[in-house]
Amino acid sequence: MKIDEIYVVATRSDIRFGRACIASIRYFHPDIPIRLLKDEIFGAFDTRELERHFQVETVQAPQRIWGWGFAKFYPLMLPPGRRVLILDSDILFTHPLLQRLEQYDEDFIVASEPDWPDYEDYVRRAYFVADKLEAFSPGFERRLTFNGGQVVANTGLLTREDFEHYVEFSEPVTVKRPDVFPCGEQGITNHLVNLKLARGEITARALDFMLWADSPRLPHDLPARDGGADGIESYMLAHYTSHKKIYPWKMKGKALYTAFEDLYYHQLPLGWLLERWRFLQPLTAHQKLSLKQRIKKILQALRA
């Protein structure tokens, strides 16, 4: 089923990754509509550059401040009739992935997760606390779990009324039962999808299409635009999540990230200069922090 548009959720603190994300999408899919959903939890930020040079539309959402991934509820709650891919900003396409995802017709396509030895502990930290969930949702049947950073969905199947059972749509959004859902929006979305699956209200498929940034399968350079010779079933995206660093050279998957960041700036007038100026900003902030720490130590020594 054709994907109509891609939503990328970004904050001021991670828009640097969002630029590389959007460059990677445009590299493989030059015509897909991209909607940038801004969460101003860390303050306002300028996205005119993306709008002008990468044909990105900034969404005029009903609220500006969401917090901890909750902006991803917005496209899910849109009126029925659209099929969307919802992404965190710290994601890079490694192939023309839409070709693979559009082979499937289920209402939701999510990234499958391997059942590693301590997986249940991970579920408890990242999604929901199982023993408390039983009291919150008696008889709950878990059919799949998935990271919320990359989800294909048909709009309108999860509604604002559904989500209001879990959260208050304040600015930022607040979870009514953080003891059950400790990690932002994704545990709530997992619970709702599983509930509606069990009732027969939706269909869903778990598919292996996501790599963590430390995966040995991650490309080490700008990938072939046509997807390469491995076949459509190998088409993936890379999710950086906890591997993000202020300094790109310290990251796992740094070669792929740097390739797409460079590609982004090559599309801009004087992009090489802007890239170097932005590169220095975290260095400057780090130096300021280091100076403050040194002054603090000197003052403490003088008072001793």
From TrEMBL:
<dbReference type="InterPro" id="IPR029044">
    <property type="entry name" value="Nucleotide-diphossugar_trans"/>
</dbReference>
<protein>
    <recommendedName>
        <fullName>Glycosyl transferase family 8</fullName>
    </recommendedName>
</protein>
